[in-house]
Here is the input.
Amino acid sequence: MEFDVSYYKFHGVDRAALIDALGLRDTGTPDPAGEAPYAIADLPNGWFVIRVDNDSGLLAEYDRKTLVREGRLVTCDVGSVDPVSQAQGYEAGEERWSVVHDGRGGEMLALEIRGEAPPAVPALHKAAFAATRAMMDQGTVQGSSPMLDVPLAVVKSVTGFRHDEPQLVSPEPVFMWLAPKDPK
Here is the structure.
């Protein structure tokens, strides 16, 4: 299954005001299959997550810095076609850090780290590097490199949420469809 998706995790941000500013409304309709082009879920730790199908384009029109003038934003972009994943952290409208794996062109060991990366980054990078080297040395390289996983693990270390793992929290987050606001 192919996918190209982004997750925007917010903390200390007025949820209703942000959704309104984006021209969206929370429908209250659950999206258990992940079919909505835009969906939102509240995490029990005070963060909320907006999931965006990258083909839908709405949030792509926004500079990520403008999405969070107050509070924090952690983004996660991942696709299955290109072996690329990235995580970025913003506070008060400024990018503070980014962790990017771009495996296109066979760059299995590539990991770009900028800014004041979260404390988990060095250990995650070291483990993924060792696992990737072992795969390369054994000639068992198939699919994506373990390095693709690093940005996703960084996001979880900061927000407690990772989209591709079971949510071991209570209450478990439920994504709800977001839809364009009704014209007035």
